[in-house]
Amino acid sequence: MPPRIAKFAGLGALGAAAGLLLLPILFALLTRPGQYAGMDAPNRALAWLAVAGVMIALALVHVLLGRQLMALSRGDRDQP
After folding, report:
1. Is 69 exposed, middle or buried (0-12, 13-18, 19+ CB in 10 A)?
2. In 3D, which of 53, 51, 79 has the Cα closest to residue 66?
């Protein structure tokens, strides 16, 4: 892969990681208790944990891929 494309792909992966970390916050804001809330407290907490766990795992994978691509763009071959 050419270094310039690897750099842009790495930056895109890191940007996607930042966006994925914001999604659980948005989900929590949309499902917070209110007058017309459709979920009770235990189900809401379970949903928050499930969504946050998946999004954090995806964000970590994007960070790892982004770091590898950025290292590739710099010419480092030692990066795992």
Report:
1. buried
2. 79
Residues 6+ apart with CB under 8 A from 11: 66, 70
Tokens representing 18 are 């930042």
Place of tokens 């310039």: 4
Per-residue pLDDT of the chain (80 residues), as tens digits, is 888 999 999 999 999 999 999 999 998 888 888 777 677 888 889 999 999 999 999 999 999 999 999 999 988 766 55
pTM of the predicted protein model: 0.79
Q: How far apart are CA 40 and CA 37, in angstroms?
A: 8
